[in-house]
């Protein structure tokens, strides 16, 4: 039988003990866990950033993976912890919207609150629920308990107000949602929406025109700005061998326009 797999995503970074301590607590419950780190470099408290990274990653994991996502500016507050089952995957996270984009792609079959204290550590810190509530719950799922054992059914879930692109008579208006490590500006315009625009397409970000759409970074000359559909299946603005964010001096929220017939 395959070892249970927990994939972690946090804003904890690697300088401090937080991510490693969560793994230690989980292993104390289920020593057979295999861990995969999606990222611990989400910007502090950036729930949308965590939601975007999780939605970009989860579908590439083996069915049965448990995702432990802790980006939690409301730690210690009255917000709930939840566990969700989509059929192929299970998720443990705070109910703050970090699972919103995953649930936009695949609706959960059941969601429960982490209300049964038997599946948490005896004492729950008001500043580190990742260690005391979320990691034990994920580990108990890895050990084989039913999701419904973790607590009562959850009510309405918190959803993020994610900006969506707008179709206009002459094209599409969108915006940058995230900037990756390479300085690529990843937008909220996905490939299916882009495909609906027939003929030539012009791209501008702010007041700057992007010379052309390409298939891959190497299709642009070194240092050239370009636009392409990246691995997240979203339109992104890039520079071959450089950082579009630095060249353009923009980040999340920058407006992007696609025009037909450009």
Describe this structure in words.
This protein is α+β, with helices and mostly antiparallel strands and 262 residues long. The chain has 2 domains: 5-150, S-adenosyl-l-methionine hydroxide adenosyltransferase, N-terminal (Rossmann fold, 3-Layer(aba) Sandwich), CATH 3.40.50.10790; 166-260, Bacterial fluorinating enzyme like (Elongation Factor Tu (Ef-tu), domain 3). 21% of the residues lie in helices and 28% in strands. It contains 6 helices and 14 strands. The strands form 2 sheets. Strands 7, 8, 9, 10, 11, 12, 13 and 14 form an 8-stranded antiparallel β-sheet that branches. The chain has a 6-stranded mixed β-sheet with strand order 2-1-3-5-4-6, sandwiched between helices. A hairpin with a 2-residue loop joins strand 7 and strand 8. Helix 1 (18-29) packs parallel to helix 4. The chain is elongated. It starts with a strand and ends with a strand. 41% of the residues are buried.
- What is the CATH homologous superfamily assignment of the largest domain? S-adenosyl-l-methionine hydroxide adenosyltransferase, N-terminal
Give, in order, the helices and strands: EHEHEEEHEHEEEHEEEEHE
Structural class: alpha+beta
Report the mean per-residue pLDDT as an integer: 95
Instruction: Please work out how many helical segments DSSP would assign.
Output: 6
CATH top level of the largest domain is: Alpha Beta
Q: How much of the sequence is in beta strands?
A: 25-35%
Described by its quaternary structure, the protein is single chain
């Amino acid at each position: 039988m395959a070892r249970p797999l927990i994939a972690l995503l946090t804003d904890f970074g690697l300088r401090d003990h937080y991510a490693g301590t969560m793994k230690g607590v989980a292993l104390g419950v289920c020593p057979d866990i295999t861990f995969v780190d999606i990222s611990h470099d989400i910007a502090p408290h950036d729930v949308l950033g965590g939601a975007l990274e999780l939605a970009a990653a989860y579908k590439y994991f083996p069915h049965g993976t448990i995702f432990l996502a802790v980006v939690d500016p409301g730690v210690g507050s009255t917000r709930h912890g939840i566990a969700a089952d989509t059929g192929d995957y299970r998720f443990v996270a705070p109910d703050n919207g970090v699972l919103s984009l995953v649930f936009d792609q695949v609706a959960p079959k059941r969601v429960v609150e982490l209300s049964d204290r038997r599946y948490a550590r005896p004492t729950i810190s008001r500043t580190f629920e990742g260690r005391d509530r979320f990691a034990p719950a994920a580990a108990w799922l890895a050990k084989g308990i039913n999701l419904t054992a973790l607590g009562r059914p959850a009510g309405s879930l918190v959803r993020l107000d994610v900006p969506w692109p707008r179709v206009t008579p002459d094209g599409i208006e969108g915006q940058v949602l995230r900037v990756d490590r390479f300085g690529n500006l990843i937008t909220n315009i996905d490939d299916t929406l882009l495909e609906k625009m027939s003929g030539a397409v012009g791209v501008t970000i702010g007041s700057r025109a992007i010379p052309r759409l390409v298939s891959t970074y190497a299709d642009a000359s070194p240092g050239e700005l370009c636009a392409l559909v990246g691995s997240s299946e979203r339109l992104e603005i890039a520079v071959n061998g450089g950082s579009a964010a630095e060249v353009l001096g923009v980040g999340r929220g920058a407006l992007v326009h696609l025009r037909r017939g450009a």
